[in-house]
Write a structure and sequence with these properties.
Substrate binds at residues 130, 136, 168, 202. The chain has 358 residues and is α/β, with parallel strands linked by helices. The chain has helices spanning 2-20, 63-71, 87-95, 112-116, 140-157, 170-184, 197-211, 246-257, 259-267, 275-293, 332-357, and strands at residues 51-56, 76-83, 102-107, 121-124, 162-165, 192-194, 222-224, 231-233, 298-304, 310-317, 320-324. The structure holds 1,4-dihydronicotinamide adenine dinucleotide (NAI) and oxaloacetate ion. Oxaloacetate ion binds at residues 129-130, 136, 168, 198, 259-261, 263-264, 272-273.
Length: 358
């Protein structure tokens, strides 16, 4: 009996070892079909309860640390990592973390549908980043097509998923996503969210510095969009309540609006914000998942498509965006900023809409 058990255990280990032996990525064109552990050969019973999350562009500067953070999120049971390059390596690496989520990798367009099928939340950081001297809008020509293709896949394979769009220019890529979903008949404005959390993260940090407060205790609503003057911090609504001199208002508004450019210049050609962005995206995704779970009182700023397109304070819930909260009283400086933001936003939105409907 004991001998039989030992023989079975040895066979199980030999089979496992052959599955786990590292292989070059090129020998796994169907990476997601290579079993990490075969049900008959191990005691794993599959994923624990939780949400299924896909990251599209998972091997990039944002994608990798975001994958790490989502693998650490206890609400995630399955994590799909999709990219057109290097997905096998990132997947192998992240999959060794002893946290709950089961990780699977998907490489290239033929595997997009498998990456998306069954997902509850899809996060999109795919696309090229800025170099010094470029605006976010200069990324439109490349990133618009990438976002369109990925959203066509979402419409087909997981039309009910919450979608978090990170790829720039967000002011145009979110309208592109909306138009793709409209064409496919799957558009639900509650489920499409542009990620502007990095603006809030920066605003909290910079305001905390100016006021000498712990940035974790500061909450600055940032509305409008995610580029230059469309980024509108509401410094009159900072929590905890406080007041600023006009020099402080000018300094903070300009620093928050130009935070992305500050990082692009410091990186001197090696890309834009990746680590702080991954932190912001993970924070926002966690809020979306807590909303899906039914937690009450989750309010975040996000670029949503009901107004028709505007970053606002929104309440998240089981169906995504459950309520767009009023902007609240704006002071004169903020009202003037809002007019400028609306003008630029209208052009970026139209550019995205025309890209799909040309
Ligand atoms: N919303 C926001 O606040 C922010 C947005 N961004 C934007 O995020 C995007 C990504 O930035 P990084 O990660 O730094 O760039 P990156 O170049 O390091 O990574 C992008 C990844 O996307 C992948 N990719 C390209 N085409 C793809 C496709 N068709 N399908 C799937 N994956 C594809 C690339 O292979 C690469 O791994 C940029 O557009 C950037 O401007 C960056 C920072 C903040
Ligand atoms: O500035 C960029 O190109 C990337 C970005 O959106 C940000 O850091 O806010």
């Amino acid at each position: 009996m004991e001998q039989q058990q030992q023989g079975a255990a040895a066979r199980r280990m030999a089979t496992l070892a052959s599955h786990l032996r590292p292989q070059p990525a090129s020998s796994h064109p169907q990476m997601e079909e290579v079993p990490l552990l075969m049900g008959s050969n191990c005691r794993a019973k599959g994923a624990a309860p939780g949400f299924k999350v896909a990251i599209l562009g998972a091997a990039g500067g944002i994608g990798q640390p975001l994958a790490l953070l989502m693998k650490m999120n206890p609400l995630v049971s399955v994590l799909h990592l999709y990219d057109v390059v290097n997905a096998p390596g990132v997947t192998a690496d992240i999959s060794h973390m002893n946290t709950g989520a089961v990780v699977r990798g998907f490489l290239g367009q033929p595997q997009l549908e498998n990456a998306l099928t069954g997902m509850d939340l899809v996060i999109i950081p795919a696309g090229v980043p800025r170099k010094p001297g470029m605006t976010r809008d200069d990324l439109f020509n490349i990133n618009a097509g990438i976002v369109r293709t990925l959203c066509e896949g979402i419409a087909k394979c997981c039309p009910k998923a919450i979608v978090n769009v990170i790829s720039n220019p967000v002011n145009s890529t979110v309208p592109i996503a909306a138009e793709v979903f409209k064409k496919a008949g799957t558009y639900d404005p509650k489920r499409l969210l542009g990620v502007t959390t990095l603006d809030v993260v920066r605003a909290n940090t910079f305001v905390g510095e100016v006021l000498g407060l712990d940035p974790r205790e500061v909450n600055v609503p940032v509305i409008g969009g995610h580029a230059g003057v469309t980024i509108l911090p509401l410094l009159s609504q900072v929590n905890p309540a406080c007041s600023f001199t006009s020099e402080e208002v000018n300094y903070l508004t300009s620093r928050i609006q130009n935070g992305g450019t500050e990082v692009v210049e410091a990186k001197a050609g090696a890309g834009s914000a990746t680590l702080s962005m991954a932190y912001a995206a993970a924070k926002f995704a966690d809020a979306c998942l807590r909303g899906l779970r039914g937690d009450a009182g989750i309010v975040e700023c996000s670029y949503v498509t009901e107004l028709p397109f505007f970053a606002s304070k929104v309440r998240l819930g089981r169906s995504g965006v459950e309520e767009i909260l009023p902007l609240g009283p704006l002071n004169e400086f903020e009202r003037a900023g809002l007019e400028k933001a609306k003008k630029e936003l209208a052009q970026s939105i139209q550019k995205g809409v025309s890209f799909i409907n040309k």
